[in-house]
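Quick question, first post here. What does this chain look like in 3D?
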Amino acid sequence: MPRLPAACLAFALLHQPAMAAFPCDELWGERNAIYFEAGYCFKTERARKAFGDNAGCKYDNVADLPLTARNRADIADIQRRERENNCPR
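> Answer (accepted):
Ran it through. Tokens below.
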């Protein structure tokens, strides 16, 4: 098996933290897309930037969202994966 040049290895090591954030960003987006579809009114700038200005939102509290059993299972799975990846809360 060929060895990677040292420059390639250094590049990979230097950029590891940026790649480590990717699963967390992806999981955040998946979870919040479910909330968005259910009519959640986002409070953070990040979420409003990603999902819009809350036009048509109906619920200020996640606990009030009319989620299906499937939605709840998907959210629980996403939150489990967020914990496994040490994603920020």
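Confidence is low (pLDDT under 50) at residues 1-20.
The radius of gyration is 18 Å.
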